[in-house]
């Protein structure tokens, strides 16, 4: 397969997997609700007041707690696992086709250098000799 064809297939697969395995999860529930208004544009004028009366800048507010994050990540892992194992299932194929149009309207994906860098850095650290005393 030509490199440009590989990139096109990978881009389409990435978008449909993001749609089915990430977007249509509990993430939608976390995304729903009221969005605060900012007059400045960067939300530096938005604060949350908690039950103890602390005034927390919006940029410092955790919008998802550990339990929600764990639950969300488990759902995403389960969906990715299902997608990989059941990709040939006619019902999953029908779902993919149903969502393909919406997913293909998304921006084209790009290589994430931070992901590659993190993997490279980990591999490099794993290969460093350890000092034996």
Low-confidence stretches: none
How would a crystallographer describe the biggest sheet? 2 strands, antiparallel
Query: What's the structural domain tally?
Result: 1
Helix content: 55-70%
Major sheet strand order: 1-2
**What is the count of β-strands?**
2
Strand content: under 5%
Distance between the termini: 52 Å
- The ordered H/E elements are HHEEHHH
Overall mean pLDDT? 89
Task: Give the SSE map.
Elements: H1 3-23, H2 26-31, E1 47-49, E2 55-57, H3 66-85, H4 90-104, H5 113-127
Antiparallel strand pairs: 1-2
Helix pairs in contact: 1-3, 1-4
Give a quick summary of the entry:
By secondary structure, the protein is mainly α. It has one domain.
Model description:
It is a single chain. The protein has 133 residues and is mainly alpha-helical. The protein has one domain (3-34, 66-127). The protein is built from five helices and two strands, in the order H-H-E-E-H-H-H. The chain has helices at 3-23, 26-31, 66-85, 90-104, 113-127, and strands at residues 47-49, 55-57. It has a two-stranded antiparallel ribbon with strand order 1-2. Strand 1 (47-49) and strand 2 (55-57) form a beta hairpin. Helix 1 packs across helix 4 (90-104). The radius of gyration is 21 Å and the shape is extended. The N and C termini lie far apart (52 Å). The model has no long low-confidence stretch (mean pLDDT 89).
